[in-house]
Amino acid sequence: MFHSSPARWSAILPAAGTLLLAGCATVGIDDALQQANTRTRSFTEGKLTLARTDAERQARTALATDLLSRPLSQDDAVQLALANSPAVQALLAQAGAEIAGAVQSGRPANPVFTFERMRLNPQLELDRLLSFGLLDLLLWPQRRSVAQNREAEARLMLAGAIVDQVTQVRQAWVRAVGAQQSLQYAGQVNEAAEASAELARRMQQAGNFSPLQRARQQLFQSDAMARLAAARHASIAAREALVRALGLDDAQAARLQLPPRLPELPDAPRDAHEVAATAAAQRLDVQLARERLEIAGKSQGMNLLPSFVGVDAGLRRDTVFDNGTGARGTRRGFELDIRLPLFDWGTAQRGAMDAQALAAAHRYDATVRDATSRLREAYSGYRSAYDIARHERDDVVPLRQSMADENLLRYNGMLIGVFELLADARDQIAGVDAALQAQQQFWLADAALAASVIGRPIASAASTSPLFE
Questions:
Q1: How many CB atoms are located within 10 Å of the residue 303 CB?
Q2: pLDDT tens string 1-50
Q3: Distance between start and end Cα atoms, the chain
Q4: 122 prior amide bond cis, ω within 30
Protein backbone atom coordinates (compact mmCIF):
# COMPACT_ATOMS: atom_id res chain seq x y z
CA MET A 1 0.00 0.00 0.00
CA PHE A 2 1.39 3.41 -1.04
CA HIS A 3 0.38 6.90 0.26
CA SER A 4 1.04 10.20 -1.51
CA SER A 5 -0.46 13.61 -2.24
CA PRO A 6 -3.55 13.56 -4.46
CA ALA A 7 -2.30 16.39 -6.68
CA ARG A 8 -1.31 13.99 -9.43
CA TRP A 9 -4.83 12.55 -9.41
CA SER A 10 -6.67 15.83 -9.83
CA ALA A 11 -6.65 15.44 -13.62
CA ILE A 12 -8.30 12.02 -13.38
CA LEU A 13 -11.38 13.20 -11.48
CA PRO A 14 -13.04 15.05 -14.41
CA ALA A 15 -12.47 12.05 -16.66
CA ALA A 16 -13.94 9.73 -14.05
CA GLY A 17 -16.96 12.02 -13.75
CA THR A 18 -17.46 11.88 -17.50
CA LEU A 19 -17.38 8.10 -17.41
CA LEU A 20 -19.95 8.01 -14.64
CA LEU A 21 -22.26 10.33 -16.54
CA ALA A 22 -21.97 8.10 -19.58
CA GLY A 23 -23.61 5.38 -17.52
CA CYS A 24 -26.77 7.46 -17.33
CA ALA A 25 -27.57 7.12 -21.05
CA THR A 26 -31.02 5.74 -21.72
CA VAL A 27 -31.20 2.31 -23.32
CA GLY A 28 -34.31 1.72 -25.45
CA ILE A 29 -35.66 -0.80 -27.91
CA ASP A 30 -37.17 1.78 -30.26
CA ASP A 31 -33.99 2.34 -32.29
CA ALA A 32 -33.47 -1.39 -32.59
CA LEU A 33 -37.03 -1.89 -33.85
CA GLN A 34 -36.62 0.91 -36.36
CA GLN A 35 -33.41 -0.65 -37.62
CA ALA A 36 -35.03 -4.10 -37.77
CA ASN A 37 -37.90 -2.64 -39.81
CA THR A 38 -35.39 -1.13 -42.22
CA ARG A 39 -33.41 -4.34 -42.58
CA THR A 40 -36.46 -6.57 -42.98
CA ARG A 41 -38.85 -4.20 -44.76
CA SER A 42 -39.78 -6.86 -47.31
CA PHE A 43 -40.94 -9.01 -44.37
CA THR A 44 -42.45 -6.54 -41.89
CA GLU A 45 -43.40 -3.62 -44.18
CA GLY A 46 -42.17 -1.38 -41.37
CA LYS A 47 -44.94 -2.47 -38.99
CA LEU A 48 -42.84 -4.12 -36.28
CA THR A 49 -43.55 -2.48 -32.92
CA LEU A 50 -43.60 -3.47 -29.26
CA ALA A 51 -46.84 -2.86 -27.35
CA ARG A 52 -46.00 -1.43 -23.92
CA THR A 53 -49.17 0.43 -22.92
CA ASP A 54 -52.84 -0.49 -22.63
CA ALA A 55 -53.66 1.89 -25.47
CA GLU A 56 -51.16 0.18 -27.78
CA ARG A 57 -52.49 -3.25 -26.85
CA GLN A 58 -56.06 -2.14 -27.49
CA ALA A 59 -55.04 -0.79 -30.90
CA ARG A 60 -53.48 -4.15 -31.74
CA THR A 61 -56.63 -5.97 -30.67
CA ALA A 62 -58.70 -3.70 -32.90
CA LEU A 63 -56.34 -4.35 -35.82
CA ALA A 64 -56.59 -8.11 -35.29
CA THR A 65 -60.40 -7.89 -35.20
CA ASP A 66 -60.40 -5.98 -38.48
CA LEU A 67 -58.07 -8.44 -40.21
CA LEU A 68 -60.12 -11.43 -39.04
CA SER A 69 -63.34 -9.92 -40.40
CA ARG A 70 -62.41 -10.94 -43.96
CA PRO A 71 -60.53 -13.78 -45.69
CA LEU A 72 -56.92 -13.53 -44.59
CA SER A 73 -54.36 -12.97 -47.33
CA GLN A 74 -50.72 -13.89 -46.85
CA ASP A 75 -49.66 -10.27 -46.28
CA ASP A 76 -52.52 -9.81 -43.81
CA ALA A 77 -51.42 -12.97 -42.01
CA VAL A 78 -47.93 -11.51 -41.53
CA GLN A 79 -49.39 -8.22 -40.28
CA LEU A 80 -51.70 -10.11 -37.91
CA ALA A 81 -48.82 -12.15 -36.48
CA LEU A 82 -46.67 -9.07 -35.89
CA ALA A 83 -49.53 -7.29 -34.14
CA ASN A 84 -51.24 -10.15 -32.32
CA SER A 85 -48.75 -12.91 -31.54
CA PRO A 86 -47.54 -12.97 -27.91
CA ALA A 87 -44.52 -14.95 -29.10
CA VAL A 88 -43.46 -12.07 -31.36
CA GLN A 89 -43.98 -9.53 -28.58
CA ALA A 90 -41.97 -11.70 -26.18
CA LEU A 91 -39.20 -11.92 -28.77
CA LEU A 92 -39.08 -8.13 -29.06
CA ALA A 93 -39.05 -7.63 -25.30
CA GLN A 94 -36.27 -10.19 -24.87
CA ALA A 95 -34.28 -8.49 -27.62
CA GLY A 96 -34.61 -5.24 -25.68
CA ALA A 97 -33.16 -6.95 -22.62
CA GLU A 98 -30.24 -8.38 -24.61
CA ILE A 99 -29.47 -5.03 -26.24
CA ALA A 100 -29.54 -3.33 -22.84
CA GLY A 101 -27.20 -6.01 -21.50
CA ALA A 102 -24.79 -5.41 -24.37
CA VAL A 103 -24.79 -1.67 -23.68
CA GLN A 104 -24.28 -2.31 -19.96
CA SER A 105 -21.22 -4.46 -20.65
CA GLY A 106 -19.44 -1.39 -22.07
CA ARG A 107 -19.81 0.73 -18.96
CA PRO A 108 -17.13 0.92 -16.26
CA ALA A 109 -17.80 -0.39 -12.79
CA ASN A 110 -19.03 2.10 -10.22
CA PRO A 111 -16.48 3.43 -7.71
CA VAL A 112 -16.53 2.13 -4.13
CA PHE A 113 -16.76 4.45 -1.14
CA THR A 114 -15.42 3.08 2.15
CA PHE A 115 -16.00 4.74 5.52
CA GLU A 116 -14.38 3.68 8.81
CA ARG A 117 -14.92 5.08 12.30
CA MET A 118 -12.50 3.87 15.00
CA ARG A 119 -12.08 5.07 18.58
CA LEU A 120 -9.08 4.56 20.80
CA ASN A 121 -9.57 6.75 23.87
CA PRO A 122 -9.00 9.61 23.82
CA GLN A 123 -8.65 9.54 20.00
CA LEU A 124 -11.34 9.26 17.30
CA GLU A 125 -10.35 8.42 13.73
CA LEU A 126 -12.59 8.82 10.66
CA ASP A 127 -11.28 7.18 7.46
CA ARG A 128 -12.76 7.80 4.02
CA LEU A 129 -11.65 6.01 0.84
CA LEU A 130 -12.97 6.38 -2.72
CA SER A 131 -11.58 3.58 -4.90
CA PHE A 132 -12.10 2.38 -8.45
CA GLY A 133 -10.56 -0.12 -10.85
CA LEU A 134 -7.77 1.62 -12.70
CA LEU A 135 -7.70 -1.00 -15.45
CA ASP A 136 -11.44 -0.58 -15.89
CA LEU A 137 -10.88 3.07 -16.72
CA LEU A 138 -7.86 2.43 -18.93
CA LEU A 139 -9.67 -0.30 -20.88
CA TRP A 140 -12.99 1.52 -21.03
CA PRO A 141 -12.63 2.75 -24.67
CA GLN A 142 -11.90 -0.79 -25.81
CA ARG A 143 -14.70 -2.20 -23.66
CA ARG A 144 -17.12 0.34 -25.12
CA SER A 145 -16.07 -0.63 -28.65
CA VAL A 146 -16.73 -4.30 -27.90
CA ALA A 147 -20.07 -3.38 -26.35
CA GLN A 148 -21.04 -1.58 -29.53
CA ASN A 149 -20.25 -4.73 -31.49
CA ARG A 150 -22.30 -6.80 -29.05
CA GLU A 151 -25.19 -4.40 -29.42
CA ALA A 152 -24.93 -4.67 -33.21
CA GLU A 153 -24.87 -8.46 -32.82
CA ALA A 154 -28.06 -8.37 -30.73
CA ARG A 155 -29.77 -6.14 -33.30
CA LEU A 156 -28.83 -8.52 -36.11
CA MET A 157 -30.11 -11.47 -34.10
CA LEU A 158 -33.40 -9.62 -33.59
CA ALA A 159 -33.75 -9.03 -37.33
CA GLY A 160 -32.97 -12.68 -38.03
CA ALA A 161 -35.53 -13.89 -35.50
CA ILE A 162 -38.19 -11.67 -37.08
CA VAL A 163 -37.39 -13.09 -40.52
CA ASP A 164 -37.78 -16.60 -39.10
CA GLN A 165 -41.16 -15.73 -37.58
CA VAL A 166 -42.47 -14.15 -40.77
CA THR A 167 -41.24 -17.04 -42.90
CA GLN A 168 -42.97 -19.47 -40.58
CA VAL A 169 -46.24 -17.52 -40.91
CA ARG A 170 -45.95 -17.34 -44.70
CA GLN A 171 -45.38 -21.04 -45.07
CA ALA A 172 -48.07 -21.93 -42.53
CA TRP A 173 -50.55 -19.81 -44.50
CA VAL A 174 -49.60 -21.55 -47.77
CA ARG A 175 -50.03 -24.98 -46.20
CA ALA A 176 -53.36 -24.08 -44.62
CA VAL A 177 -54.88 -22.73 -47.84
CA GLY A 178 -53.44 -25.59 -49.89
CA ALA A 179 -54.76 -28.20 -47.46
CA GLN A 180 -58.19 -26.57 -47.60
CA GLN A 181 -58.18 -26.85 -51.40
CA SER A 182 -57.01 -30.46 -51.27
CA LEU A 183 -59.88 -31.24 -48.92
CA GLN A 184 -62.35 -29.88 -51.48
CA TYR A 185 -60.91 -32.09 -54.20
CA ALA A 186 -60.87 -35.09 -51.87
CA GLY A 187 -64.59 -34.54 -51.28
CA GLN A 188 -65.24 -34.47 -55.03
CA VAL A 189 -63.33 -37.71 -55.55
CA ASN A 190 -65.24 -39.34 -52.71
CA GLU A 191 -68.57 -38.26 -54.23
CA ALA A 192 -67.57 -39.78 -57.58
CA ALA A 193 -66.49 -43.01 -55.87
CA GLU A 194 -69.76 -43.22 -53.95
CA ALA A 195 -71.71 -42.77 -57.18
CA SER A 196 -69.68 -45.55 -58.82
CA ALA A 197 -70.20 -47.91 -55.89
CA GLU A 198 -73.95 -47.24 -55.77
CA LEU A 199 -74.30 -47.77 -59.51
CA ALA A 200 -72.31 -51.00 -59.28
CA ARG A 201 -74.58 -52.26 -56.51
CA ARG A 202 -77.71 -51.62 -58.56
CA MET A 203 -76.26 -53.15 -61.68
CA GLN A 204 -75.27 -56.29 -59.77
CA GLN A 205 -78.81 -56.54 -58.41
CA ALA A 206 -80.06 -56.31 -61.99
CA GLY A 207 -77.65 -59.05 -63.05
CA ASN A 208 -75.56 -56.78 -65.28
CA PHE A 209 -72.47 -56.67 -63.06
CA SER A 210 -70.27 -59.41 -61.64
CA PRO A 211 -69.29 -59.51 -57.96
CA LEU A 212 -65.68 -58.81 -59.00
CA GLN A 213 -66.66 -55.64 -60.85
CA ARG A 214 -68.74 -54.44 -57.92
CA ALA A 215 -65.92 -55.23 -55.46
CA ARG A 216 -63.56 -53.15 -57.59
CA GLN A 217 -65.88 -50.13 -57.35
CA GLN A 218 -66.33 -50.63 -53.61
CA LEU A 219 -62.55 -50.70 -53.23
CA PHE A 220 -62.34 -47.37 -55.05
CA GLN A 221 -64.94 -45.97 -52.65
CA SER A 222 -63.08 -47.25 -49.56
CA ASP A 223 -59.83 -45.76 -50.80
CA ALA A 224 -61.53 -42.43 -51.50
CA MET A 225 -63.07 -42.38 -48.01
CA ALA A 226 -59.66 -43.01 -46.41
CA ARG A 227 -58.09 -40.25 -48.48
CA LEU A 228 -60.91 -37.89 -47.54
CA ALA A 229 -60.34 -38.59 -43.84
CA ALA A 230 -56.60 -37.99 -44.27
CA ALA A 231 -57.26 -34.76 -46.17
CA ARG A 232 -59.68 -33.57 -43.48
CA HIS A 233 -57.08 -34.12 -40.76
CA ALA A 234 -54.35 -32.50 -42.87
CA SER A 235 -56.56 -29.45 -43.34
CA ILE A 236 -57.27 -29.18 -39.61
CA ALA A 237 -53.59 -29.67 -38.72
CA ALA A 238 -52.45 -27.03 -41.22
CA ARG A 239 -55.09 -24.58 -40.01
CA GLU A 240 -54.09 -25.09 -36.36
CA ALA A 241 -50.42 -24.62 -37.25
CA LEU A 242 -51.39 -21.28 -38.79
CA VAL A 243 -53.43 -20.40 -35.68
CA ARG A 244 -50.35 -21.00 -33.52
CA ALA A 245 -48.09 -19.01 -35.84
CA LEU A 246 -50.54 -16.09 -35.71
CA GLY A 247 -50.88 -16.31 -31.92
CA LEU A 248 -54.70 -16.46 -32.03
CA ASP A 249 -56.80 -17.24 -29.00
CA ASP A 250 -59.85 -19.53 -29.22
CA ALA A 251 -62.27 -16.74 -30.09
CA GLN A 252 -59.97 -15.37 -32.78
CA ALA A 253 -59.32 -18.85 -34.19
CA ALA A 254 -63.06 -19.39 -34.62
CA ARG A 255 -63.24 -16.22 -36.75
CA LEU A 256 -60.27 -17.09 -38.94
CA GLN A 257 -61.24 -17.16 -42.62
CA LEU A 258 -58.96 -18.35 -45.41
CA PRO A 259 -59.23 -17.53 -49.11
CA PRO A 260 -60.61 -20.33 -51.31
CA ARG A 261 -57.39 -20.82 -53.25
CA LEU A 262 -53.69 -20.01 -53.38
CA PRO A 263 -52.48 -17.01 -55.41
CA GLU A 264 -51.76 -17.55 -59.07
CA LEU A 265 -48.20 -18.09 -60.19
CA PRO A 266 -46.27 -14.94 -61.12
CA ASP A 267 -45.87 -14.26 -64.83
CA ALA A 268 -42.12 -14.85 -64.59
CA PRO A 269 -39.76 -16.18 -61.91
CA ARG A 270 -37.23 -14.01 -60.12
CA ASP A 271 -34.00 -13.50 -62.01
CA ALA A 272 -30.96 -15.30 -60.60
CA HIS A 273 -28.66 -12.28 -60.98
CA GLU A 274 -31.16 -10.00 -59.23
CA VAL A 275 -31.44 -12.49 -56.38
CA ALA A 276 -27.66 -12.74 -56.01
CA ALA A 277 -27.23 -8.95 -56.07
CA THR A 278 -29.94 -8.46 -53.45
CA ALA A 279 -28.46 -11.15 -51.22
CA ALA A 280 -24.97 -9.64 -51.36
CA ALA A 281 -26.26 -6.42 -49.79
CA GLN A 282 -28.67 -7.86 -47.23
CA ARG A 283 -27.38 -11.10 -45.77
CA LEU A 284 -27.80 -11.09 -42.01
CA ASP A 285 -25.76 -14.24 -41.43
CA VAL A 286 -22.61 -12.73 -42.97
CA GLN A 287 -23.06 -9.48 -41.03
CA LEU A 288 -23.57 -11.45 -37.81
CA ALA A 289 -20.44 -13.55 -38.39
CA ARG A 290 -18.45 -10.36 -39.07
CA GLU A 291 -19.61 -8.78 -35.81
CA ARG A 292 -18.67 -11.91 -33.88
CA LEU A 293 -15.24 -11.93 -35.50
CA GLU A 294 -14.67 -8.32 -34.44
CA ILE A 295 -15.86 -9.11 -30.91
CA ALA A 296 -13.42 -12.01 -30.64
CA GLY A 297 -10.52 -9.90 -31.90
CA LYS A 298 -11.19 -6.89 -29.68
CA SER A 299 -11.87 -8.97 -26.59
CA GLN A 300 -8.52 -10.74 -26.55
CA GLY A 301 -6.36 -8.15 -24.80
CA MET A 302 -9.24 -6.58 -22.91
CA ASN A 303 -10.20 -9.83 -21.20
CA LEU A 304 -6.69 -11.20 -20.79
CA LEU A 305 -5.00 -8.36 -18.89
CA PRO A 306 -7.48 -8.03 -15.98
CA SER A 307 -7.53 -11.80 -15.55
CA PHE A 308 -4.03 -11.93 -14.05
CA VAL A 309 -3.17 -8.30 -13.28
CA GLY A 310 -5.46 -6.10 -11.21
CA VAL A 311 -4.90 -2.48 -10.21
CA ASP A 312 -7.31 -0.63 -7.91
CA ALA A 313 -6.66 3.06 -7.20
CA GLY A 314 -8.16 4.95 -4.29
CA LEU A 315 -8.23 8.48 -2.89
CA ARG A 316 -7.99 8.52 0.92
CA ARG A 317 -8.79 11.18 3.53
CA ASP A 318 -8.36 10.31 7.21
CA THR A 319 -9.25 12.64 10.08
CA VAL A 320 -7.99 12.08 13.66
CA PHE A 321 -9.54 13.86 16.67
CA ASP A 322 -7.70 13.91 20.03
CA ASN A 323 -10.37 14.57 22.64
CA GLY A 324 -7.78 14.94 25.35
CA THR A 325 -5.87 17.83 23.78
CA GLY A 326 -8.52 19.06 21.34
CA ALA A 327 -6.09 18.60 18.42
CA ARG A 328 -7.27 17.59 14.97
CA GLY A 329 -5.18 16.15 12.15
CA THR A 330 -5.91 15.19 8.55
CA ARG A 331 -4.10 12.75 6.29
CA ARG A 332 -4.57 12.72 2.53
CA GLY A 333 -3.19 10.39 -0.08
CA PHE A 334 -3.90 7.59 -2.49
CA GLU A 335 -3.74 3.83 -2.50
CA LEU A 336 -2.82 1.32 -5.17
CA ASP A 337 -3.79 -2.31 -4.79
CA ILE A 338 -1.94 -4.47 -7.31
CA ARG A 339 -2.49 -8.15 -7.89
CA LEU A 340 0.91 -9.60 -8.81
CA PRO A 341 1.09 -12.32 -11.48
CA LEU A 342 3.45 -14.58 -9.56
CA PHE A 343 1.74 -17.90 -10.26
CA ASP A 344 -0.42 -17.24 -13.30
CA TRP A 345 0.86 -15.21 -16.23
CA GLY A 346 -2.26 -15.95 -18.26
CA THR A 347 -0.55 -18.21 -20.79
CA ALA A 348 -3.38 -20.77 -20.78
CA GLN A 349 -6.05 -18.12 -21.11
CA ARG A 350 -4.05 -16.39 -23.81
CA GLY A 351 -3.97 -19.63 -25.76
CA ALA A 352 -7.71 -20.09 -25.30
CA MET A 353 -8.45 -16.58 -26.53
CA ASP A 354 -6.18 -16.98 -29.53
CA ALA A 355 -8.02 -20.19 -30.37
CA GLN A 356 -11.39 -18.47 -29.99
CA ALA A 357 -10.35 -15.64 -32.29
CA LEU A 358 -9.06 -18.14 -34.84
CA ALA A 359 -12.30 -20.11 -34.61
CA ALA A 360 -14.31 -16.91 -35.17
CA ALA A 361 -12.24 -16.12 -38.26
CA HIS A 362 -12.83 -19.59 -39.68
CA ARG A 363 -16.54 -19.42 -38.82
CA TYR A 364 -16.78 -16.15 -40.73
CA ASP A 365 -15.08 -17.71 -43.74
CA ALA A 366 -17.35 -20.76 -43.49
CA THR A 367 -20.45 -18.54 -43.25
CA VAL A 368 -19.49 -16.62 -46.40
CA ARG A 369 -18.96 -19.84 -48.34
CA ASP A 370 -22.08 -21.45 -46.91
CA ALA A 371 -24.17 -18.39 -47.78
CA THR A 372 -23.55 -18.55 -51.51
CA SER A 373 -24.09 -22.31 -51.58
CA ARG A 374 -27.39 -22.12 -49.71
CA LEU A 375 -28.56 -19.30 -51.94
CA ARG A 376 -27.87 -21.36 -55.06
CA GLU A 377 -29.72 -24.29 -53.52
CA ALA A 378 -32.71 -22.14 -52.53
CA TYR A 379 -32.91 -20.57 -55.98
CA SER A 380 -32.71 -23.98 -57.64
CA GLY A 381 -35.61 -25.18 -55.49
CA TYR A 382 -37.56 -22.01 -56.28
CA ARG A 383 -36.97 -22.20 -60.03
CA SER A 384 -37.69 -25.94 -60.19
CA ALA A 385 -40.92 -25.48 -58.24
CA TYR A 386 -41.95 -22.66 -60.57
CA ASP A 387 -41.24 -24.69 -63.71
CA ILE A 388 -43.11 -27.72 -62.38
CA ALA A 389 -46.12 -25.69 -61.24
CA ARG A 390 -46.32 -23.86 -64.55
CA HIS A 391 -45.99 -27.13 -66.48
CA GLU A 392 -48.84 -28.65 -64.46
CA ARG A 393 -51.02 -25.58 -64.98
CA ASP A 394 -50.30 -24.91 -68.65
CA ASP A 395 -49.77 -28.43 -70.01
CA VAL A 396 -50.96 -31.26 -67.78
CA VAL A 397 -54.31 -29.82 -66.61
CA PRO A 398 -55.39 -28.75 -70.15
CA LEU A 399 -54.45 -32.20 -71.47
CA ARG A 400 -56.53 -33.90 -68.79
CA GLN A 401 -59.44 -31.57 -69.55
CA SER A 402 -59.14 -32.43 -73.24
CA MET A 403 -59.19 -36.13 -72.40
CA ALA A 404 -62.26 -35.62 -70.20
CA ASP A 405 -64.08 -33.82 -73.03
CA GLU A 406 -63.19 -36.61 -75.44
CA ASN A 407 -64.39 -39.32 -73.06
CA LEU A 408 -67.66 -37.45 -72.58
CA LEU A 409 -68.18 -37.50 -76.35
CA ARG A 410 -67.37 -41.20 -76.43
CA TYR A 411 -69.84 -41.81 -73.61
CA ASN A 412 -72.54 -39.91 -75.49
CA GLY A 413 -71.74 -42.09 -78.50
CA MET A 414 -72.05 -45.20 -76.30
CA LEU A 415 -68.42 -46.13 -76.94
CA ILE A 416 -67.61 -46.25 -73.21
CA GLY A 417 -69.73 -46.89 -70.15
CA VAL A 418 -70.54 -44.76 -67.13
CA PHE A 419 -67.85 -46.41 -65.00
CA GLU A 420 -65.15 -45.43 -67.44
CA LEU A 421 -66.53 -41.90 -67.40
CA LEU A 422 -66.50 -41.77 -63.59
CA ALA A 423 -62.97 -43.19 -63.49
CA ASP A 424 -61.87 -40.48 -65.91
CA ALA A 425 -63.49 -37.85 -63.66
CA ARG A 426 -61.49 -39.17 -60.72
CA ASP A 427 -58.30 -38.99 -62.75
CA GLN A 428 -59.07 -35.44 -63.79
CA ILE A 429 -59.64 -34.35 -60.19
CA ALA A 430 -56.38 -36.06 -59.20
CA GLY A 431 -54.61 -34.12 -61.93
CA VAL A 432 -56.01 -30.83 -60.66
CA ASP A 433 -54.88 -31.73 -57.14
CA ALA A 434 -51.40 -32.53 -58.45
CA ALA A 435 -51.30 -29.06 -60.01
CA LEU A 436 -52.43 -27.61 -56.68
CA GLN A 437 -49.65 -29.43 -54.84
CA ALA A 438 -47.12 -28.08 -57.34
CA GLN A 439 -48.49 -24.58 -56.83
CA GLN A 440 -48.23 -25.00 -53.06
CA GLN A 441 -44.63 -26.17 -53.36
CA PHE A 442 -43.81 -23.09 -55.40
CA TRP A 443 -45.14 -20.69 -52.77
CA LEU A 444 -43.29 -22.58 -50.04
CA ALA A 445 -40.11 -22.32 -52.11
CA ASP A 446 -40.80 -18.62 -52.69
CA ALA A 447 -40.93 -17.99 -48.93
CA ALA A 448 -37.78 -20.07 -48.43
CA LEU A 449 -35.92 -18.12 -51.12
CA ALA A 450 -36.90 -14.79 -49.56
CA ALA A 451 -35.50 -15.98 -46.22
CA SER A 452 -32.32 -17.28 -47.86
CA VAL A 453 -31.75 -14.00 -49.72
CA ILE A 454 -31.71 -12.06 -46.45
CA GLY A 455 -29.47 -14.63 -44.80
CA ARG A 456 -31.85 -16.86 -42.83
CA PRO A 457 -31.99 -20.03 -44.94
CA ILE A 458 -34.42 -22.72 -43.85
CA ALA A 459 -34.43 -26.41 -44.56
CA SER A 460 -35.84 -27.14 -47.98
CA ALA A 461 -39.41 -28.33 -47.75
CA ALA A 462 -39.73 -31.95 -48.71
CA SER A 463 -41.72 -32.36 -51.86
CA THR A 464 -45.26 -33.37 -51.04
CA SER A 465 -46.78 -36.12 -53.11
CA PRO A 466 -50.14 -35.37 -54.64
CA LEU A 467 -53.02 -36.57 -52.54
CA PHE A 468 -54.49 -38.48 -55.47
CA GLU A 469 -52.35 -40.46 -57.84
A1: 18
A2: 334 444 443 444 444 444 443 343 334 688 999 999 999 999 999 889 99
A3: 88
A4: yes
